[in-house]
Amino acid sequence: MLRVTDRVPDTPSEAPPASPRKTSRGAVRGRRRVHGRAALLLLALPATAFFAVFSYAPLAGLAVAFKNFSISDGVFGSPWNGLDNFRFFFDSGDAKRILWNTLSLNVLFIAATTVCALGLAVMINEIRFRYLRKFLQSSVFLPYFISPVVVSIMLQGLLAGVGGQGGAVNKMLNIFALPSVSWYSEPGAWPWILTVVKVWQMSGYLSVIYLAAITAIPVEVYEAAAIDGASRWRMALRITVPLLAPTTVTLLMLSVGRIFYGDFGTIYAIIGDNGTLFSTTDVIDTYVFRSLRQNGDFGMTAAIGLFQSVVGLVFVLVTTFVARRFGRDTRVF
């Protein structure tokens, strides 16, 4: 017969102590895990510090978008004005034109560079001569490093020539008995001219990313297609391009996130303060720079920058939802 003092413990507090050997083994594993993670955390520390200082700390400056900013009062001493900075921009007659130019130009840039970069990567991948393939990879990548100022000078030589007269393009038009065009006073042509410049600059850079993704495709897939009698053209269309879909979606998401950011460096270097072309080339970034330079309105520029970031976040979320909804193999998150 069991006595009260001999009963089996039924609560965790009354459970027998764990074995010292098991405890020591668990402690050793825990220390090893901490030491392994400490090395990874040490590697991530510089990048973490960089983003903390240059990306997250400046977020406090977003308060300027809701203030009547004064340099003498500072960011936190300036009086609040609510949404007046946003109203000032959207109530102006330039808001609709600037938003449309920014969106339409970026859509042209994204569509053209994606298609051209993908096609360029597939064509370079089909080259059988190793040294020729490497030479072409380096050649198409070179325009990415050319300064926008140099691009502007090149365009002036092609479109305007010396003293604003002639130009290589106009001379070619004259060969075919076509009239010369005053390109720097024709705003309708510049969305397409800027798109050609963007394709020339970015297609080689993006094609290198696609070529890196192509190298990850198993060779056995192409061998099986060759056994079935598929041509190189059919293998490129039915194997290479579909398997590049995840990479394409990732690059598109990164591009869509900045769809309300104009390429300020390239556009301003080429267009400058040429008011004749503002109707089709003036984007948010150039407008903000010009307003800040002429009026010194920090509050409005901060409000437009905040608007760009919020809209970019919304576009990224929508793109992610569409990718997950219509392509399970292409979703990233």
Summarize the structure.
The chain has helices spanning 20-56, 74-77, 84-90, 95-125, 130-141, 148-159, 168-175, 190-214, 219-227, 232-243, 245-256, 264-271, 278-281, 284-295, 298-326.
Characterization of the model:
This protein has 333 residues and is an all-alpha fold. It has a domain at 98-326: MetI-like (MetI-like fold, Orthogonal Bundle), CATH 1.10.3720.10. It has helices at residues 20-56, 74-77, 84-90, 95-125, 130-141, 148-159, 168-175, 190-214, 219-227, 232-243, 245-256, 264-271, 278-281, 284-295, 298-326. Helix 6 (148-159) packs parallel to helix 12 (264-271). The longest helix is centred in the N-terminal third of the chain and has 37 residues, at 20-56. The model has no long low-confidence stretch (mean pLDDT 82).
Task: Give the amount of beta strand, in percent.
Answer: under 5%
The topology string of helices and strands comes to: HHHHHHHHHHHHHHH
Q: Counting H and I runs of at least 4 residues, what is the number of helices?
A: 15
CATH topology of the domain at 98-326: MetI-like fold
Radius of gyration: 29 Å
Organism: Actinacidiphila alni
Region (Disordered): 1-30
Protein name: Carbohydrate ABC transporter membrane protein 1, CUT1 family
Keywords: Cell membrane, Membrane, Transmembrane, Transmembrane helix, Transport
Task: Considering the chains and any ligands shown, give keywords for the structure.
0% strand, 15 helices, MetI-like fold, mainly alpha, flat
How do the strands and helices of this protein lay out in sequence?
Layout (H helix, E strand, L loop, with lengths): L19 H37 L17 H4 L6 H7 L4 H31 L4 H12 L6 H12 L8 H8 L14 H25 L4 H9 L4 H12 L1 H12 L7 H8 L6 H4 L2 H12 L2 H29 L7
Helix pairs in contact: 3-15, 4-8, 5-8, 6-12, 11-15, 14-15
